[in-house]
Amino acid sequence: MSTIRDVSREAGLSIATVSRALSSPEKVSKESLKRVHAAIDKLQYRPNMLSQKFRNKRANCIVVLVPDIANLFFTTVIAGIENVAQKRGFSVLLGDTRDSLQREAEYINLVETRQADGIIQLRPYAENDSALPKDLVLAVNASGCENTPYPAVRIDNVGAAKDVVNYLLSLGHKRIGVISGLKDNPHTRDRLKGYKQALEDAGIAFDENLVAEGDFTLWSGLNASEHFTRMNDIPTAIFCMNDEMAIGAMKGLKSKGLRLPEDISITGFDDLEVSRYCDPPLTTVSQPAEKLGEKSAELLFQLIDEQQPSQTEFVLPIEFVIRQSTAIPRKS
Description:
Blueprint: H1 4-11, H2 15-23, H3 30-43, H4 49-56, E1 61-66, H5 72-87, E2 91-96, H6 101-112, E3 118-121, E4 139-141, E5 152-154, H7 157-171, E6 176-180, H8 186-201, E7 211-213, H9 218-229, E8 237-240, H10 243-255, E9 265-267, E10 284-286, H11 289-304, E11 313-315, E12 319-321
Parallel strand pairs: 1-2, 1-3, 3-4, 5-11, 6-7, 6-8, 8-9
Antiparallel strand pairs: 10-12
Helix pairs in contact: 1-2, 1-3, 5-11, 7-8, 9-10
């Protein structure tokens, strides 16, 4: 079997440089990295990862806590995390927590026992309902909200929701329904806050009857749409707090004979790839999901490398994408 010394001789580089290329490739020049990889391929060298872990006192693994692994938005965030982790030679362990604090604690224990080096949390922080932050556990929140008490990457959920409702108001909609996430979810609270602010600025009173609670799933959007179709005075537009609920709601509204957007406009939040292929294509907020993952991973690796981050909260920009699911309100 080839050894690191063999790779060193083949590449014409020191053992220290080869070792650095394997453990911290970003610290090695592109030319040296190319030579190391060429030597590894030629010699079919396979590093002893177990001995590396003991020598570096690292597991070369990070854990991503996912509240719902079936959620399409999270899959894109995870892809961004993977992009960064692979370049660092780290593996990524997915922890499907299902919003369970007990499950979160079990995965966090992997860091406490040095079986993993850090945590990226995809659930927003909620006081009295979070296993993080925790002493001696390096962690970053990749789906953060305001006032997260540990490093976080997020968008401005209040401002984004306000942008959506202001757009609907600009079209002439005044009776705007909402399909929310679970009421205790921080993202729900922030997006509802933006909705209320936009209405208040327009001089329109908030009506609790225009809010139907979902849980960010397709089924809940379909179910919540019935809340509106049973009304005598159906809203002319509905703001959904994620794309999955919007897609479910679109099916429910159509099943009742409503035309989109002629009879009722609908908007989403996330800009999932499938949203542009809906009938009609969905107006939505485009979150930089992959960038959220990449930035959170970069921030976590700074902590793992014992570097002081320049800042511990990053608010990434969103884009409001207007498609064919919205139009001026129907005439009475």
